[in-house]
Every structure is written in C-alpha cells, then in structure tokens.
Amino acid sequence: GDPEGCRLRDASPQRASSLLVNMATMTMSMAAPATRAVAGQSKSAATQKAFFGRAAAGSKASVADAFSAMSLSAPTKARGLSICAAVETSVNQIGFTTPPSTGAAPSWDAIVEVGGSQQFVSEGRYYECHSLKGVEPGAKIAFERVLATLDGDEPTFGMPYVKGARVEATVLENFKDKKLIVFKYRRKKHYKRKNGHRQPMTRFLVTKVVKP
After folding, report:
1. Does the N-terminal peptide bond of residue 3 adopt cis geometry, omega within 30 degrees of 0?
2. Between the CA of residue 205 and those of 129, 137, 171, what are the distances in Å?
3. What is the DSSP letter of 72?
4. 105: three-class secondary structure by DSSP
5. How far apart are CA 135 and CA 174, in angstroms?
6. pTM score, two decimals?
7. What DSSP designation does 84 have?
8. Sign of the CA dihedral 36, 41, 43, 48?
9. In a 3-state reduction of DSSP, which class is residue 117?
10. Coil, helix or strand for 199?
C-alpha cells in the first residue's frame, strides 16, 4: 500500500539514501515559507533564512530539522474553561421558595424519631422523611418522640424518650423521591423482572425545639 516504502526495501543503499534526501527536500519545501530575492544578487545568495535560523528550502538540512521546524511553526490554540454553577432551590407546595439546606450544619438541637428513622435536627432547617400520613402542605405538626436534646454543651438522653421535649415543624410539601430500579433475575429459569419505585416523601421545616 506504500510505494515509497516498497522502493526503500527493494532499492540498494545508495538508491535508498538518495530517496531519503528527496523526501527531506519535499518535506522542507512544504514546510518552509516563501523566500524572496534581493535585486543585484543571485537567488541562492539572497534566500532568506527560515525556521529560526535553520537553512531554508533547497539547502542540505536534515530531516530532523525539517520536522522540528514544522512543530515550531504550528499555531497553538488556546483553550478556555467555562464553569457554570447553579444554586438549587425549589418552590414548595405552600407557595414560597425553599432555600437549600446546604453548607456546614450548625450544632444539632435534638434527635427525633420520625418516619421510621432517627434524625439530628436544628431550628431553621428543613428535612425529609418517609411520607407522613394525613398531613397536607402548610400543616403544623409536632414530634413528641425526642430521643435526645442538646442545651449548650450538655446533652440530655431519654430512656427511650426525653420527657417534656418536642420538636415543632411546618410541612412544606409531599413529593416522590428519585426513581429506584428493582430488578429480579433467576438464572436458567427464564425469569427476569424490571420495575421502578419512587418512594413518597415529606419535607418539613423545623420551627421550634422545646427542651425540658
């Protein structure tokens, strides 16, 4: 597929060297810029130097010089990096924008048992739990199952709950969580099932923590 390669393999050493010189001359002719002649002088004497002081086209320059000149003369393209950052907020079902509860969380105020889980909560932040039955967005709720409270640096732990403690909150919205794929497979039984599940969730905003 390469005629020049076939010639180099089949030719004698002298013929191969002459072919290499011709290839180098062609390469330098393609890479070298146009030269100009000065009036009253011969073209060979007036030929300007190219490639940062290396010999111009037609001279006995090496193949390495030609390829290094090509790499030096290639233009460089500057690349720019654009970063787009967006702050996620959501308009809840009671009509106002909920700021994201991100960043360093403050010291916790209480540990409550809600929606089948235990959560560290603080006043002024919102949290999510499994769907609470019978509550609508905007409703005021109170969690009586408080496992612990923190007053300054002194925690109070209940057995199992702290008497007289409660956490008051406002329901922001009821929504469905991200879809989870439930895939069942039994080998050699021709059995395969794929289902999706979106867990109903409730988002609430802690408004007050009553400590004993």
Report:
1. no
2. 11, 11, 6
3. H
4. coil
5. 9
6. 0.52
7. -
8. negative
9. strand
10. coil
Tell me the pLDDT of the chain (212 aa) as tens digits: 555 555 555 556 666 666 666 666 665 555 444 444 444 454 444 444 444 444 445 554 555 565 555 555 545 554 443 334 444 555 666 665 665 565 666 688 999 999 888 999 999 888 999 999 999 999 999 999 999 999 888 999 999 999 999 999 999 999 999 999 999 999 999 999 999 999 999 999 999 999 98
Which single residue is written with the structure tokens 């300054």?
A: 152
Compute CA distances 18 → 22, 25, 26, 130, whole Å.
6, 11, 12, 83
Helices 63-73, 13-31: crossing angle, 10 deg rounding: 20
> How buried is 174 (Cβ within 10 angstroms: 0-12 exposed, 13-18 middle, 19+ buried)?
middle
Burial of residue 143 (CB within 10 Å: 0-12, 13-18, 19+) is buried
Gyration radius (Cα) of the chain, Å: 39
SS3 content of the chain, % helix, strand, coil (to 5): 20, 35, 45
Closest CA to 194 of 184, 208, 207, 203: 184
Q: State which H helix or E strand residue 206 sits in.
A: strand 200-210
If we measure between CA atoms, which residue out of 128, 106, 121 comes closest to residue 166? 121
